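Blinded run. Sample ID left blank on purpose so nobody reads anything into the name before looking at the predicted structure. Input follows.
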Amino acid sequence: AIDIPAMLVFTDVWYPGWKATVDGRRVRIYRVNYCQRGIYLKEGNHKVEMMFFPGLLKAGLIISGISFLFVFSLGFLYSFKKLIRFKVNYL
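Blinded prediction complete.
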C-alpha cells in the first residue's frame, strides 16, 4: 500500500507495445529516465498488470497466413494438374 500518489517505475526497458492496467482499468505508461516504464498510482492497494503486444506480430501472422495459403495452393494445383495428366494418358 502507498500513502500518497506515486510513480511506479519498472526497471526493464520501455518499448512501444506495452499495455498496463491498474485494478482492471487501462492506464497510460510513461517513459521514465529515458528508457524505463512508469505508471502513476493513487494512494492505496492496487493490482498492476503489464502486458506486451508486439506491433509487428499481427503483420507477421498475416504475412505467414498468406504465404501458407499460397504454398498450399501451389501444391494443390500441382497435384491436380498431375492427376488430370494421369487420367488423360491413362484413357
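Unblinding after everyone has recorded impressions. Residues 6-52 form one domain.
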